[in-house]
Amino acid sequence: MQQISVWLAAARLRTLPLSVSGILVGNGIAYLEESFSWAIFIFALLTTITFQVLSNFANDYGDGVKGTDNENRLGPKRVLQQGLLTRAALKRGIILTAAISMLLALILIHIAFGSADWGKALFFIALGLASIIAAIKYTVGDSAYGYYALGDIFVFLFFGGVSVIGSYYLQTQTLDMLLILPAASIGLLSTAVLNLNNLRDMNNDQRSNKLTVPLLLGFDKGRMYQVILIVSAFILTSIYAFLKAESLIAYLFLLLFFPLGKHLLRVAKSEGGKSLDPELKVVALSTFFFALVFLLGLYLD
């Protein structure tokens, strides 16, 4: 039982609601358009969850090996850092999770396309492989892109565009260009979680030679970047509601600006470090509920 609890700690289950937010939006809009398969939805969720767990394992491994996870890090202690798992064990976990995630992705693709359209299937297989590589290479290896201030771009693309538009396409096999708006919103809010994490860990990241966007901008501009990310997300979804909806109920998601607005005020007053740690949960859960309330508003419209 103790070993299971260690692996669950490494999986960081608290990150899963954020990771599925885009899947909920893409599938939810497909459901409202009456082009929906429960099997596709379930396997899209399972695939995304395993991608996130893979990313968490790899992040634990990569930062642990590089020494970024040390006594100066302000976030929760990682399993490799604490010696709860060896490098070899965690590496085996990464390989196994990567294999499971690819298997789930193949099942999802088969359900969506069958054997009728190999072109589309191959594209999504490539997308699945890209997701696995992106999950691992964030912190693992000498060319880990998370150490070159590129994490924000990848989070925006995979948590936003790939998650929302990709899952919608699997359901409908059509493209709606307006989906770029809510997809970008989820991507921006997800990036805000990463930015907050990087604001908190600026000092240790600098000592560990991990370049992040807040280190490029500086702390004050990094806080302003947080405002831009969150406010832009609400603006883009408001534009989508204006173009697609028929009543004001579709703007129900604006209620989520209250907790996020308070979050921005606390960030503005913060001097960084440990004081930002509780804010990660606020933004992550707000993003998840943003997705749910956004869909509820469209449903009631």
Overall number of structural domains: 1
Number of strands: 0
Structural class: mainly alpha
Largest beta-sheet details? none
Query: Assembly state here?
Result: single chain
Question: Can you put this structure into words, describing what you see?
Answer:
This protein is mainly alpha-helical and 301 residues long. The mean pLDDT is 89. It contains 13 helices and no strands. Helix content is 74%, strand content 0%. It has one domain. The chain has helices at residues 2-11, 16-32, 38-66, 79-82, 87-113, 118-137, 151-172, 180-200, 202-207, 213-217, 219-244, 257-269, 277-300.
Q: Which terms would index this structure?
A:
globular, 301 residues, mainly alpha, 13 helices
Write the layout of secondary structure elements.
Layout: H1 2-11, H2 16-32, H3 38-66, H4 79-82, H5 87-113, H6 118-137, H7 151-172, H8 180-200, H9 202-207, H10 213-217, H11 219-244, H12 257-269, H13 277-300
Helix pairs in contact: 2-3, 2-7, 2-8, 2-13, 3-5, 3-6, 3-7, 5-6, 6-7, 7-8, 8-11, 8-13, 11-12, 12-13
